[in-house]
Amino acid sequence: MLIVMQMLPIILIILLGLGVARYSGFDRSLLNTFVDVLFYVVMPITLFFDLYTLPISMVLNGGYLWAYTLSYLVMAVL
User: Fold this and answer.
1) Which of 15, 17, 64, 72 is the most buried (most CB within 10 A)?
2) Are 7 and 50 in contact (CB under 8 A)?
3) Angle at 49 between CA 67 and CA 37, to 5 degrees
4) Which pLDDT belongs to residue 73?
5) What span, in angstroms and rounded, lies between the C-alpha atoms of 50 and 45?
6) Per the confidence metrics, is the pTM higher than 0.85?
7) pLDDT tens for each residue of 17-69
8) CA distances (Å), 73 to each of 3, 63, 68, in order?
9) φ and ψ at 60, to 5 degrees?
10) What is the CA radius of gyration of the chain?
């Protein structure tokens, strides 16, 4: 449940972006600028802050690291 609460700001940012893109009268170039700001500034700040507030045992979870490494190797082979 703690991880879900840590991911909630990222999920809300994504849902906000979907709503703005579909139901607003903004120009496409302005929306592209919003996307750039969100992906290159806001989301990395949110992600690193969320990782900073988690206990180190949750960040360096052996099972998670093993699954990530295995999935990365599978994708590299494909």
Assistant:
1) 17
2) yes
3) 100
4) 94
5) 9
6) no
7) 788 888 888 888 888 898 899 889 988 998 888 888 888 888 788 888 899 89
8) 25, 15, 9
9) -100, 50
10) 16
Question: What is the rounded distance in angstroms from the CA atom of residue 59 to the CA atom of residue 39?
Answer: 22
| Burial of 6: CB neighbours in 10 Å, binned 0-12, 13-18, 19+ | middle
- How far is it, in rounded angstroms, from Cα 8 to Cα 66? 25
Per the listing, tokens 């909630």 go with 8
Angle of helix 2-23 relative to helix 28-37, nearest 10 degrees, comes to 160
Which residue, chain included where needed, has tokens 């093993």?
A: 66
Q: 73: which 2 tokens?
A: 């190797």
